[in-house]
Structures are given as structure tokens and as C-alpha cells.
Write a structure and sequence with these properties.
mainly alpha; 4 helices; 75% helix; elongated
Length: 67
């Protein structure tokens, strides 16, 4: 688990950000943050949340596998 969790790494944050953004958009009906999800959709070009989540997981996994 430690090889995947590197909060001091810029590449880890670059992968973690789309993961969190995708989760926020995916669970919008539960928390009602319509303004936040609208902003995320505008910034990402309306990419589906599943793609954001998968991109974040792939980035974290590839970074962990390279070490």
C-alpha cells in the first residue's frame, strides 16, 4: 500500500485529482453539490466520471509499478 500512497509526489497528486473529481461528480445526487459538479464538468470538458476515476486509478497504479 505504501508504494501507491505518495502524497509528497506531484505525479501522485496529478493522478489523485481526477480520481476525486470523478467521485464528486459520480456521487452528486447524494450530496447535492450541483455548482461544484458543474465547475468540474466545465474544467474537464464534460468527461464522464467513470473516465476520470479510471484515469486517476491508472495514474496511481502506473506510478506505483514504476518504483
Amino acid at each position: 500500500m505504501k508504494k501507491y500512497f505518495k502524497p509528497k509526489s506531484l505525479t501522485w497528486w496529478a493522478s489523485f485529482a481526477p480520481l476525486i473529481a470523478g467521485l464528486v461528480v459520480a456521487f452528486e445526487p447524494l450530496h447535492g453539490w450541483l455548482a461544484v459538479t458543474g465547475t468540474i464538468n466545465a474544467l474537464t470538458g464534460g468527461v464522464p466520471p467513470s473516465l476520470l476515476i479510471n484515469a486517476g486509478l491508472v495514474g496511481i497504479g502506473v506510478r506505483g509499478a514504476m518504483k
